[in-house]
Design a protein that fits this description.
It is a single chain. The protein is an alpha/beta fold. Among the domains are: about 140 residues, Hotdog Thioesterase (Thiol Ester Dehydrase, Chain A), CATH 3.10.129; about 150 residues, 3-Layer(aba) Sandwich (Isopropylmalate Dehydrogenase), CATH 3.40.718.10. The protein is about 35% helix and about 25% strand. The protein is built from 14 helices and 18 strands. A 6-stranded mixed sheet has the order 15-14-16-13-12-17, sandwiched between helices. It has a 5-stranded antiparallel sheet with strand order 2-4-5-6-3, with helices on one face. Strands 10-9-8-11-18 form a 5-stranded parallel sheet, with helices on both faces. Helix 4 packs across helix 14, helix 5 packs across helix 14 and helix 7 packs parallel to helix 8. The longest helix is centred in the last third of the chain and has 19 residues. It is elongated, with a radius of gyration of 30 Å.
Length: about 475
Amino acid sequence: MVEMMENRTWDEIKVGDSATLTRTCRMEDVELFGVATGDLNPTHYNAEQASSLASHRKVLAHSLWTGSLLSAVLGNQLPGAGTVYRSQTFDFQNSVEVGDTVTVTIVTKEKIAPADVVFDCKAVNQDGVVVFAGTARVLAPTQKVVQPRTELHEVSLRRRHHVFEDIIERCASLEPISVAVCHPCDQVSLEGPVEAFKKGLINPILVGPEAKIRSVAEEFGFDLTGMQIIDTQHSHESAEKSVELCRTGVAEALMKGSLHTDEMMHEVASRATGLRTGRRISHVFVMDVPTYSKMLLISDAAINIYPSLEDKVDIAQNAIDLALCMGVDKPKVAILSAVETVYPKINSTIEAAALCKMADRGQITGAVLDGPLAFDNAISAEAAKIKKISSPVAGQADILLVPDLEAGNMLAKQLSYLADADAAGIVLGARVPIVLTSRADSAKARLASCAVAVLFAHARRSGGKAAAE
């Protein structure tokens, strides 16, 4: 049923008429008010500073947030639709803390022809303590209005992007690693390693036609001072040389330039001269999703098209090793499918159950696995609760293991374009981490991909879990 609003005209209002509104102050209310007004007073956002500056144990609401509740009473109830504010006086007597429940009451004090009304106004908290008192004068409506209640757009807060900044910051105290940059012969592929070099993340070894590389650098103003260049004739030779540098230990990571991914990965996968190990090579997206509380890893969305159960063991272990070297303690792996129950007609549910049992038997280590889980159950504790799923992973996944490349690729791109997520990426399972850049990557994402490779390479140096097998 549609909720209706009915105003009170000047003729209908009588001295003594009253209206009330009760509202509990949430942290979201305080933050939204700050966003709308630009008021950055730290007493409204930091409990420690509120305590030191204003002798309060909790964050304080803006005084005018409380006062603004009057506008809701006047505009919605008395007089209602058509009301125009003329003046307002406030005597703020006590502060409102986040969590307080405020009741605002207005009482008609005086009617002034032809259409003004004066109200006594008072607000009290849940303990009956007066928050403010004052008077409001408004121009009351003279025409009767009965209409459906206006539906506003829903507004929610998102955390700011910070995952990539945190990753890059973690590399500040680490030595830069040598990276073979394969065929960086356009603006995007050269800009990434140049910026990472400036940040002290990597020491690039630029592998490609030297004349072309220097021409691109000159055209776009890139300073190549301090960078080694290995001259090649074409992209195929660039791939061979770059892989050789990694295989012989000269470089600790590989980065794709302007050649096709398949061309470089063909050399990586070569059994005779490539970078293969006992592991299946797989890709991991590192996602910074503002609507999710922490870093999210998605695998595999770029290398393995329809991975087998055996492939998924390595895909899972690669992602777990990456999460561990990035500081995630006991990563939670959600094995995704369309449903959260084992259903023989959906093969991914069978494989999910098998992977969980393999983890129980020590065939996958370092993490907590659960599956099958539908996407909503993996990332939403509320959705998991509704479906009565009791799991240490549901609602708090660190890693999403997808059924196949199609599902993973669509999921990662949906998060990027519909949820404003940032995505970095790295290929694991080879002798060295491999950075795959894309033209669509932001500068921050390219830097983050380099930083992830740095963290992984340093974990290998220390002989940690991330060491290639």
